[in-house]
Amino acid sequence: MKHLHLKQALSLLLVFFPLLGFAHNVTSADQALLQTGSLWAYIQVGATHMLTGYDHLLFLAGVIFYLNSFKDILKFITVFTIGHCITLVGATYAGITANEHLVDALIALSVLYKGFENLGGFERLKVKSPNLLLMVGLFGLIHGFGLSTRLQSFDVGTEQFLSKILCFNLGVEVGQVLALIPIVFIITMARRHQQFPAFYKAVNWYLVLAGIGLFTYQLYGYFSE
After folding, report:
1. 42 touches 168 (CB < 8 A)
2. What percent of the chain is modeled with pLDDT above 90?
3. pLDDT for 27
4. What is the pTM of this model?
5. Which structural domain, as residue segments, surrounds residue 185?
6. What's the domain count of the chain?
7. 96, 97, 86, 93: which is closest to 165 by C-alpha?
8. Burial, 94: exposed, middle or buried (Cβ in 10 Å; 0-12, 13-18, 19+)?
C-alpha cells in the first residue's frame, strides 16, 4: 500500500507540471480581463500565471527537494520571493525588458541546475557547489524578470500603473503559496517511505531533462522569430 501511494505521488508530480505548461502564456482572455481596469483582475492574472508557470514551479520543487525542514523551506522560499519581487516590480516600472524566449531559456537552465545539484552533480565533478541560498536569490531575480516580461506584454495603460504592477505581484505571491502547498505535501509524504531515494532520483532526473527540453524549446523559439 505504501508503495502504491508513493507511486501515485510520483505520477501526480510528473504528470501535473507538463500539463500546466500549455497554459503558461499570455492569452487574449487575460488581456480581456485586464481591460476592465480592475486591480483585482491583475491579482487574478498574476495568481493564474504563477499557478500555470511550470518552469517556476519545477524550480521551486527542486529547491524543496534539497531541504529537510520547514524552517529551511521558509527561508529559501522567502529569498526566492524577495528576488523575483525586486525584478518583477522594478523592471516593469522602469520599462526594462528583454526577449521572452531568452529570459525563459535562463529560467529553464535554473530548473536544469537544481536537478543537477540535487543529484550530486557538483560532487561527481569534484567541484564545490555554489552557495545555495545565494543561487536561489539569483535565480529569483531571473524568474522575476521573466514575470516582468510577461506583464509588459500586456497593454496595462498608464493609469494606476504602479498599483497594477503591485497587484500583479501580489497575485503571483498568492499563486505561489497555493502551488507550494501540494508540492510540499507530496514531498513531505514521500520522505516517509522507504522508496523515497528512488522517488528523489526520478524526479530530479526529470528536472534535468525538463530543463534541457525547455531550454532547447526556448532557443528554437528565439531563432525562429
Report:
1. yes
2. 60
3. 66
4. 0.85
5. 38-224
6. 1
7. 93
8. exposed
pLDDT digit string (tens) for 179-216?
999 999 988 888 888 888 999 999 999 999 999 999 99
Distance in angstroms (rounded) separating the CA atoms of residues 88 and 166: 9
Asked whether the CA dihedral 153, 154, 160, 164 is positive or negative, the reply is: negative
C-alpha to C-alpha distance for 22 and 20, rounded to whole angstroms: 5
> Which residue, 53, 70, 181, 66, is CA-closest to 115?
66
Say whether pLDDT at 62 is over 60: yes
**Is 29 inside any structural domain?**
no
Cα distance from N-terminal residue to C-terminal residue, the chain: 50
d(CA 66, CA 47): 25
Closest CA to 50 of 119, 150, 131: 150
What pLDDT, on the 0 to 100 scale, is given for residue 113? 96
**Residue at 128 is within a domain:** yes
In a domain, 1, yes or no: no
Instruction: Report the alpha-carbon distance of residue 23 to residue 18 in Å, rounded.
Output: 10
Measure the CA–CA gap between 120 and 186, rounded to whole angstroms. 22
Three cell numbers, residue 61? 520543487
Centroid of chain to Cα 46: 13
Does residue 9 lie in a domain region? Answer: no
